[in-house]
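Sequence in, structure out.
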Amino acid sequence: MSFAPELRTHAQKVCTLYKKCMRTIEGYYIARFIVRYHQVLLRKQFDDNKCVCDPKEQRRLLRVGEREQWLKNNPHPLNKFPRSIGLAGGVAYARVVTPPDWVLDYWHPLEKAQYPEYFARRECRKSEYIDKWKKGTLM
């Protein structure tokens, strides 16, 4: 769920930045102990600034952190989730394609003979659908 920037609290923005930074670190290194080392250093940076009370300074630190995360962002991250959507999508995104119904019309009769009940019911429903379409009662 995405919120407008003005509807998110400063704490939510900091948590989002923290998670993005953690994912960026995971995307750069393969060895788990190196990833953990850099994550501990990152956590220390966040903990050092958690007692800042001035709102202007908090916003400035957030902007600096977001800028640093953007500069260090990996163009080819290693941690793509399998079903991620988009250009940087995962390896399993849209792997299973559900074919449209009309594909079954092009099956060979010997293939259709393996599923006689299904294709008999399908032909019946297809003729009902066509009749409704001709009458104009199709929703």
